[in-house]
Amino acid sequence: MAIEERLAATLPRYPHEAMIAFIADVLRAHGFRPADARRCGELMVEADLTGADSHGIFRLPQYVRRIRNGGMNPTPNITLSRRAPAVAMVEGDNAMGHLVMSRAGEAAVEIARETGVAWIGARRSNHAGSGAVHACLPLSAGMIGIYTVVASANHMAPWGGSDSLLGTNPFAMAIPMVDADPVVLDMATTVVSYGTVKGHALLGTPMPEGWMVDRNTGEPLTDPKRSADGILLPIGGYKGSGLALMLGLLAGPLNRAAFGRDCVDFNADEKTVTETGHALIALDVSRFLDPLEFTRDVARHLDDLRNSTRLPGVERIRLPGEMRASRRRDRTANGVPIPAPLMAQLDRLAAETGAAPLGTR
Prior knowledge:
globular; 361 residues; 14 strands; alpha+beta; 3-stranded antiparallel beta sheet; 7-stranded mixed beta sheet; 37% helix
């Protein structure tokens, strides 16, 4: 969920470096090593900078509750094993998902430099925030990134069913551009992510019809505080349900990680280890053609799409990653908007940990 632009314009903004430092201080107060705490802060706030507001600092209170209740390991021993020339597995030791994916991103780039492509599986992990953040990890090396994960709770039923056996299982892809913004697609396989539902609950705003239905009646459910009674609808009907299934099998059972009935709802259970699995692929563009030539060709096609004839009433044709890049520039320069209900939660964390409040930094 990105905070609506009209609402964002009315909210106080906070420097992203201050947000990173605040997260790091809170996590250090809960036993994290300084470098790990800082890295988690960087990846969480990257979600905020790019507009994934329900997947950044918004999640810090929930992560802290899990850490306090033993659901996550603050001092993990994350290990990597090479399974084949282009395949590796990251064992997360129940670490925060951001740390697991940071190691996976490093490995993906290292291996793809050797082989041209790398598939990194990860297990024994946790919620890792925004999928696009991790798909973008290979970009700095001139590589395409592809990411998926078994969501940390099941909020979707198989097509035609009412049992929550599938997650929002997102798919993210990032394509590097030498001298332009990357092309980035990040989508849940449900109409919206569950984080978006949580954001509406925090702000006290109803959901539109078409996001969720009551699991017992099949009728539209628009009260986000009743989301436990509902199931999220898939994108594209049965196609979205099938996509969630296939992506989940790649990130879950292939990695000996949780899927289906084995998934733990980390929104409701703060103690049980979630056994979250992820997959990250890195593909070296230079193995196909010169990266600058690739960029120019992609840019030509993007211009064709962007400038194509619009349907009546359509103001502009937007392409994947455009709003993400625009928000990142704005928020890097002017700060990240944070609504009052979230700020109150962060202030409580500051009081409980002795960290300097975000508003004083």
